[in-house]
Amino acid sequence: MGADSYQFHLQAKYLDVNGRKAIGAQLQALRIAAANPASELLVRPEKDVTPGQPRSRHAYIPKVATTLELIRQVMERGEQVLVGSAFQDGLDTLSARLHEAGVKHLVMDGRITQKRRGELARLFKQGCPRAMREGLTTRHSEYPVILAGVECMAELHSFNLCNNVILTAYSWAFDKFEQFINRAHRLNSSWPVNVWSVICDGSIDRKLEAGIHEKKDAAELVLDGQLLGETPEEVDLHELLRTAQSEFRRVKTLDEIELEKGWLKLCTNLKLAYLNWDGMRILPLAETSIKSESKQKFAIGLTYWRQRWHAKYFANSTAPNWI
Q1: Which domain range does residue 171 map to?
Q2: Angle in degrees, CA 15, 4, 148, rounded to 5
Q3: How confident is the model over 117-167, as pLDDT tens digits?
Q4: Residue 37 lies in a domain
Q5: CATH code at position 70
Q6: Distance in angstroms (rounded) separating the CA atoms of residues 261 and 257
Q7: For residue 188, which phi and psi values (nearest 5 degrees)?
Q8: What does pTM read for this prediction?
Q9: Long-range contact set of residues 8-13: C-beta below 8 Å, sequence gap at least 24
Q10: Residue 176 lies in a domain
């Protein structure tokens, strides 16, 4: 279970080369376990005898299920969403589920060259069905979702027609976090931007979120000249670990096997939401190149029957077992 993996790293003994406690390495492992308990980055500390397994067999945790549900809601509104994580394998887990649901998406992380990132950004920034309906663009992108590494999102990318951001794993650096959100939160944004932080309750994510907000408040005070000459306080890593251990004990955990049972329904809903999102590309007759009225009616009828057939097919399809 994912909770078992997180608990293992709470109790494991992390030591440096001199035999002293390596609190930083332990906190990093907790960050990874909260983002993806099945991550290959999770290993047993050297010479550690803590009972249990450092990695879970289940990558489908409540954080993943919640993120996919938010993506479905965004597609139903005819909008796009930018999903960010500090860890690549967390993006891989989401990508695999979206592939299974037939949802076209882009992945932009540190494994992709800078040139290719620019190409992917241009494909995504063509806009969404909502932008097309409101006359902001004449055609929209094929991709409602882009999965991106928080620290690889360069300042040159501007997604002003995307008004949804989901964060699944925080970066320690406040500037990277702020820069990521600002890819969608632009001066020329067409609509208010929604930002969701998907957090595992009782995990170190909650402390990281609080730290991010503190840094943001401090940055605003510095810009206002109210913190000049102030001495910053150092973070007590031992206290942070003790807090993480205490907060986890009070949390009610969820069995991922039970969670997996709801995947088939969510998968079907994602498929239908994407079909509707993609079908909006040819619905406005004013934007089509078909001049004959009879051909226009045929185009609408073809779209309707295609969606109806897919809806019937997907309602009877079965998803493979990930367990």
Answers
A1: 62-249
A2: 85
A3: 888 888 998 889 998 888 888 888 999 999 988 877 766 678 888 999 998
A4: no
A5: 3.40.50.300
A6: 7
A7: -100, 20
A8: 0.76
A9: 8/33, 8/50, 8/52, 8/53, 8/54, 9/33, 9/42, 9/54, 10/244, 10/245, 10/248, 11/50, 11/52, 12/44, 12/45, 12/48, 12/50, 12/54, 13/45, 13/47, 13/48, 13/49, 13/50
A10: yes
